[in-house]
Amino acid sequence: MKKILKFTLLIIGAVLVIWTFWFLYQKSRPKVKKYVIENVSMGSIDKKTVATGKVDPRNEILIKPQMSGIIAAVYKEAGDIVKAGDVIAKIKVIPDMVSLNGAESRVSRAQISYDQSKKNYDRDGKLYADKVISKEEFEKTQLQFYNDKEELRTAKDNLSLTRDGISTNSAAISNTLVRSTINGTILDVPVKVGNSVIQSNNFNDGTTIATVANMSDMLFVGKLDETEVGKIKVGMPMDITIGALQDQKLLAKLEYVSPKGKEENGAIMFEMKAAVKVPKDVFIRAGYSANAEIVFSKSENVITIPESCIEFGGDTAYVYLLKTKEPQTFTKKRIQIGLSDGVRIEVKSGLSVKNKIRGTEIMEKKPEPKKEDKK
To answer: When comparing pLDDT for 114 and 369, which is higher?
Structure first.
């Protein structure tokens, strides 16, 4: 029995020694690395940046009243399309009592003068017909009558303007009617019936009755960082992407770059504006957020590879050409590189589209620990 036990222990000890040597041998062996094999292909490289901003009409016109008063009626609302001259609102004039009293007094005096002049005119007309007075005397009476008649008409018009803001002669073009000055779309009507409004003058800007803009003439207004603003120039094309219009890209041309930057969140930003070409079948609302994609430089139909495949030695770039698949062996190759977009890079010389090169190393996935079933 003792012999069997000793024999068993010797066998177990031998197995442990052999397993230890095998384990240490396996640990000491170099691991065979596996790499992703990348194809060399033809393509285009764009070096570009993206500016954020919004799309607004080039000109937003503020429609203001030509007199003070109270809004009596509003005939248009936001979204309506108007032409120059269309009436947007009507103003009811609240007259100044001193001015109204003076206008009424002027009418009374003019009426008295007119009544007296008419009597004289009628009387002298009969006397002149009977050749009792001369033509010269009658013409003086006639002139006075016409003057007093005109003064009465003017006084009544003045009273109407003071009281109602409208006269007989200006009924069609009354200042009480607020009209659009351009063709376009009404963006906003900030007043309601009953609101008090004041006219624009040297002391204040006046009350805005409506905002009107031509929605077919739009601008992209955005900002660029100081590190990129030096790469752009007026006239450069760009693609505008509007978040609210999915799968819709609009062409634009850079028109303006601010000569002065402003600090925002620790960075110096420069304002830029670009004219947007709006197709007839596309409606853009003012204030849509948008991105402008600006291409600084472009290389078309060139050999490209992933930039991660390149190894640098000083100022020289290298790649590893695939020599054999199993086992993977590679040859170091010097190349000349060009434009990069941050993901792929242009290869000017050293490679052809038939080549395959070494990519990133394939990492072995560690087995995930099994989750114990909860009872």
So the answer is: 114
Q: Quick one: 146 and 248 in the same domain?
A: no
Same-domain pairing of 228 and 195: no
Q: Are 137 and 124 in contact (CB under 8 A)?
A: yes
**Is the model's pTM score more than 0.70?**
no
Cβ atoms within 10 Å of 179's Cβ, excluding its own: 17
228 belongs to a structural domain: yes
What is the domain extent for residue 119? Answer: 97-164
For residue 66, give the nearest of 173, 145, 167, 171 by alpha carbon. Answer: 173
List pLDDT tens digits, range 223-269.
998 888 888 889 999 999 998 887 788 999 999 999 999 998 888 99
CATH number at residue 195: 2.40.50.100
DSSP per-residue codes, 224-272:
EEHHHHTT--TT-EEEEEETTSTT-EEEEEEEEE-SS-EEETTEEEEEE
- How far apart CA 184 and CA 267 sit, in angstroms, is 38
